[in-house]
Amino acid sequence: MGAPLRVRADEIGESENDFARDVIAGLTSRPKWLLPKYFYDAAGARLFDDITLLPEYYPTRAELAILREHATDIARRIPPGAALIEFGSGSSNKARTLLAAAPAIAAYVPVDISPEMLAQEADKVRQQFPQLTVLPVEADFTKPFDLPEAVAGMSRTGFFPGSTIGNFEPHEASAFLRHARQILGRGAVLIIGVDLVKDPAVLNAAYNDLAGVTAKFNLNLLTRINRELGANIDLSAFCHRAFYNSERNRIEMHLASKTRQKVRVAGRMIDFRAGETIHTENSYKYTLESFGALAPGSGWSPTAVWTDDNRYFSVQALVAQDD
Ligand code: AVJ
Questions:
Q1: Spatial distance between the Cα atoms of 38 and 22, rounded to a whole number of angstroms
Q2: How far is the CA of 170 from the centre of ligand 1 (A)?
Q3: What is the largest CA-CA distance in the chain?
Q4: Which residue out of 281, 284, 285, 315 has the highest number of ligand 1 atoms within 8 Å of its CB and is therefore the one to mutate?
Q5: pLDDT in tens, 193-227
Q6: Does residue 41 have its Cβ closer than 6 Å to ligand 1?
Q7: What's the rounded Cα separation, in Å, for the pair 132 and 82?
């Protein structure tokens, strides 16, 4: 009775421990921040799926159109017998589109932190491709992880769709590409989706949908903190804010405190000024030139680029530089 709620290392798994540590670090910083990878609990993953269907949210539709339209061309870049390793797989829609066009792929290895999503999507893939070896890996793909032994002898093709790379700072994006090169090994190919710089009105609309789904997705991070870290944050005291920062070529998402207030998170009191924000996400946009310049310094040679008719989005094929 009356004991402060505290997150104890012996009570929780390692990843929850990471979550507590990262949330405390972010909320005690100035400006305050939270890592976007924590959006994707079960509810967040569902909300993100809803985002991909919004009329304003063009990236998923544009990328799927590219994968369909150029499927044969893209498949031709993948060595026969390769294992397709998907970083942060989420929904398997895009992978299934690619797999349908590339029957010579021998194994599919989705890597994701959401176990529910991973199991559900692996089943979908097995149903559609009964001959394919499907080997899900539950891991945070931004950290080193082991590939299943079964793919040790196969050539590896990475698949990183969705412009998830846009969540990284440019120097982190470069570090991620090097990390992927390390995991995938010699002779690897990387098929990557990269969102492009465009009219800010299109970008602003995509992250400020009229139905308010992106706002719910953003605010769900606070629901997760309340549930998992014994916090008492009043969601109605925060609002969603998203805008394009044209100096840095990125969409920024924030949660803005409507009033001056104190909240309790994992036994700590956190103060907010009226209007103070928590920076929850950056979504960097690249030009074909700026991404083309990033790859060679990060262990990869660009070999092909495909775009949709609007030039809103790109899918790019990179080949590992020899070491
Ligand atoms: C999954 C990181 C590509 O940046 O567009 C969508 C996430 N955030 N709406 C993106 C997101 C708000 C998305 N990525």
A1: 10
A2: 16
A3: 65
A4: 281
A5: 999 999 999 999 999 999 999 999 999 999 999 99
A6: no
A7: 11
Q: Is 90 in the pocket of ligand 1 (CB under 6 A)?
A: no
Report the alpha-carbon angle 169-139-83, nearest 5.
Answer: 95
How far apart CA 306 and CA 288 sit, in angstroms, is: 10
Q: Which phi and psi angles does 315 have, rounded to 5°?
A: -115, 130
3-state SS track over the chain: CCCCCCCCCCCCCHHHHHHHHHHHHHHCCCCEECCHHHHCCHHHHHHHHHHCCCCCCHHHHHHHHHHHHCHHHHHCCCCCCCEEEEECCCCCHHHHHHHHHCCCCCEEEEEECCHHHHHHHHHHHHHHCCCCEECCEECCCCCCCCCCHHHCCCCEEEEECCCHHHHCCHHHHHHHHHHHHHHHCCCCEEEEEEEECCCHHHHHHHCCCCCCHHHHHHHHHHHHHHHHHCCCCCHHHEEEEEEEECCCCEEEEEEEECCCEEEEECCEEEEECCCCEEEEEEEECECHHHHHHHCHHHCEEEEEEEECCCCCEEEEEEEECCC
* Residue % of the chain over a pLDDT of 90: 88
**In terms of DSSP bridges, do strands 32-33 and 156-160 run parallel, antiparallel, or are they unpaired?**
unpaired
**Cis preceding linkage at 144, omega within 30:** no
Q: Is ligand 1 within 6 A of the CB of residue 59?
A: yes
Above 60 in pLDDT, residue 11?
no
The pTM score is 0.92
Structure-token pair, residue 233:
């944050």
Q: Which two tokens stand for residue 307?
A: 């775009």
| 269 contact partners, CB below 8 Å, separation of at least 6 | 262, 263
